[in-house]
Amino acid sequence: MIKILLILPRLKNKGIGGAEKSILNISLGLKKTEDFQIEYYFGKPNLIYQKIFKRISLENYVLIPKILLTIKKIKPDIIITQTRISFAATIAAKLCQIPIINIVRDSSDFCPKFVDIIGYGKACPRIENRKICYDCIRKWRSLRVLIGNKPKEWEHSLKASISNLAYMIRYFSCKLNLAILNKATVILVASKLIKSFLTRQIKSEKIKIMNITPIDEKERNNTTKKKKELLFIIPSYESSHKGLDFILRLAKEIPEDYKIVIVGNLIPDKKLSDIQTKITNFGRVPNKVLDELYQSSSITLVPSFLTDAFGRIIIESILNGTPVISSPNCGANYFLKDKKFLRILPIDLKLWIKEIDEIIKNPIFISEHEIDEIYNKFSIEKSIRDLSNLIKNLFK
After folding, report:
1. In contact, 121 and 346? CB cutoff 8 Å
2. Which of the ends of the chain has fewer CB neighbours closer than 10 A, N or C?
3. Is 250 exposed, middle or buried (0-12, 13-18, 19+ CB in 10 A)?
4. Where in the chain does DSSP place strands (E)?
């Protein structure tokens, strides 16, 4: 039996996100087999360290001593980790000479300003050098205002200058993160897109593309009538980089009898002042309600600006029988780009309006066979099986 230590950030009180849900579901699947024993460590830095180091993303490094003590106590054969705690976990694993699998969910730990946008609608291909990054950081001040992330004139404020300085310091944290990531035994990513982002700095042979975002099978409802609605899903945190302002501009151009349904976070009224009749806005909703919104919508919109390593929304929408318009920055696109129910467009307002109009006039039907095919590719069973084989191969 192989003993696995899963090292993760402490779970949030208000529920868990997609990254946590994915790895916990996979670990529970491994736990049910006779081949693996799973132990857990959930770490969170002291509040003082968070206040001092969070802005430059070094707060989790203070957990190294606790992780070392946990390793000494549990004596795992292998460690699996993900997100920001993974760099502390990797250092501890190397000190204890234990193999470690590092799951990379996004590019935020390798971009000094957290969001790898270098221009409106364009994701950065990778971290290059300090000169290029610093120039990008300076432009980011103005871009944040352009994409609706900050109010007008914010770029000339003292807060903007302090923010820029923190990003410039964080450049070195990102370089450190990349150097540590390169020490992992295996790096798991969800798509070719995120692999290409990392390969300039990381040894390519370490990086494996795998289904690390398993999808629950949906209760299929072919009787749900499509409404004249476009669905846009955002995270509960600030989400301009997910395309919120683009969607709000789009709302002014859609047909009068259509609405955009925004789910996941409540948008301030001042942003909706002139488009309230075109927007229906929900905060977080239960999964069952979300599935019903997918099923009743005509199209799901995914205008992500940054490198979205996978894009669970795309798969969930298709499994619920609703076509998707996506920007090129989503990893899931590359598994489905030959499918009629996925339209991949650059973030250009005119192109999206034209495509929406085309789909509205000529609705796209997603067959049961296509849904089965996609579910089998991204099922929890396949994810567990693939990770199980990877771990066993490391001990051959």
Report:
1. yes
2. C
3. buried
4. 2-9, 36-43, 78-82, 100-103, 117-119, 122-123, 186-189, 207-209, 229-233, 259-263, 279-281, 299-302, 324-326, 342-344
Q: Is the dihedral of CA 24, 29, 6, 171 positive or negative?
A: negative
Specify the pLDDT at position 15.
Answer: 56
Q: What pTM was estimated for this model as a whole?
A: 0.89
- Rounded to whole angstroms, the Cα distance separating 49 from 45 reads 6
Same domain, 65 and 90: yes
Tell me whether residue 221 is in a domain.
no
Which parts of the chain register pLDDT below 70?
12-16, 121, 148, 218, 220-223, 236-239
Tell whether 156 is covered by a domain.
yes
Domain limits for position 364 = 229-377
Domain count, the chain: 3
Whether residue 39 contacts residue 7, with contact meaning beta carbons closer than 8 Å, is answered with no
CA distances from 185 to 74, 354, 384 (A): 20, 47, 19
Residues 91 and 204 in one domain: yes
Lookup: tokens for 52: 């001092």
248: CATH? 3.40.50.2000
Q: From the CA atom positions of the chain, what is the Rg in Å?
A: 22
pLDDT value, residue 307? 87
Among 81, 37, 86, 78, which Cα is nearest to 60's? 86
Residue 239's CB is within 10 A of a number of other CB atoms, namely 20
80 contacts 55 by C-beta, under 8 angstroms: no
Are residues 284 and 173 part of one domain?
A: no
All residues at 6 or more sequence positions from 104 whose CB lies less than 8 Å from its CB, including other chains:
82, 181, 187, 188, 189, 194, 198, 309
Q: Which pLDDT belongs to residue 245?
A: 84
Residues 288 and 300 in one domain: yes
Q: How far is CA 24 from CA 7, 8, 27, 212, in A?
A: 11, 10, 5, 11
CB of 293 within 8 A of CB of 261? yes
Q: Is-contact 99 394, C-beta < 8 A?
A: yes
Q: How many CB atoms lie within 10 A of CB 265?
A: 18
Task: Give the pLDDT confidence score for residue 343 in this predicted structure.
Answer: 95
DSSP state of 210: -
Q: What six digits make up the tokens of 90?
A: 């990797």
